[in-house]
Amino acid sequence: MTANLTRKLYDERLRTLSEGSVNVNFNAFKDIQWDDPEFAVDTSDPRWVLTSADALGAHPWYREQPLETQIRIGIWRWAVIAKVGMQFENILMRGALDYLYELGNRDEEFRYLTHEITEETHHTQMFQELVNRTGVDTAGGKRWFRKVSRFLPLAGSLYPEAFFTGILAGEEPIDHLQKSALRSGEPVHPLPQRIMQIHIAEEARHISFAHEFLRLRVPHMRKARRGALSVLFPVIMRVLCDVIMIPDRKSAAQVGIPGWVIKDVFWKSEAGRRMLHDLFSDVRMLAEDIGLMNKVSRPLWKALRIDGRPARFRGEPALHTD
Question: Cross-referenced InterPro entries, in alphabetical order (predicted)?
Answer without folding.
Answer: AurF/CmlI, Ferritin-like_SF, RNR-like
